[in-house]
Amino acid sequence: MNVSFRIFDKQDIDAVLAIEQLAYEIPWNRAQFSQSLVNPNTLAHLILKENQIVGYSVALQTPDFTDLLNICIHPKFQHQGLGGQLFDYLLSESGARSIFIEVRASNRNALFFYKKLGFELINIRKKYYSDGEDAKILRFSISDKLE
User: Fold this and answer.
1) What pTM did the predictor assign?
2) Hey, where are the domains in the chain?
3) Beta pairing, strands 98-104 & 66-73
């Protein structure tokens, strides 16, 4: 399997939007991706399989931690280890000691994925999403994994 990574640029938004709309009931829109990509603190990457975009990640880097805003693999390519590879790539590029993410409380597949990666539940944000659903706040801490 020929897998590669590259920077997610604005010319990739159409391909990413197509994946986003297949993967999520409430997907990000073009403006959300565009605004993220112009932020100098954003880390945005693509994962490609045989030179085809099959996934992406968008994260906001701060001096103390990284906030993973969106990570997604095309539904046809899920359960092949690509999400884990993309997360490992983000870790290597960010140099972060801690990564945080908010996940819909109902998104069992994502919660299982993050638990498998080593994320831990640290809090719940009540009615975080526009539809009133709660968010589970998860943290991945590299120091915890090294001990």
Assistant:
1) 0.90
2) 3-146
3) parallel
